[in-house]
Design a protein that fits this description.
With 77 residues, the protein is mainly α. It has a domain of 42 residues. The protein is built from 3 helices and no strands. 0% of the residues are buried.
Length: 77
């Protein structure tokens, strides 16, 4: 793994224009990382399916399970 000191040594050898370009690239990358953290990318899925409407109730799920069990095993297969 490359150390901070090694990286710094290489950077010091760059022409000024290249140093400025590197600084701009690093700044942009840091801004993106900070924006992702603040906006919650790597976010919770809470509310991700809110547009699908309400979830079926426990009673609805139980009823469907009961219907499935009543039809199992089917004789026509």
């Amino acid at each position: 793994m490359t150390t901070y000191e090694e990286v710094l040594s290489v950077i010091e050898k760059l022409p000024t224009v290249e140093k400025a370009r590197l600084l701009e690239d690093i700044s942009a990358a840091l801004r993106r990382e900070l924006a992702q953290r603040e906006s919650g990318h790597g976010r919770s899925l809470f509310g991700a399916f809110a547009d699908l409407g309400t979830a079926p109730s426990a009673e609805d799920i139980d009823n469907v399970r009961r219907e499935m069990r009543n039809n199992f095993p089917r004789e026509d297969i």
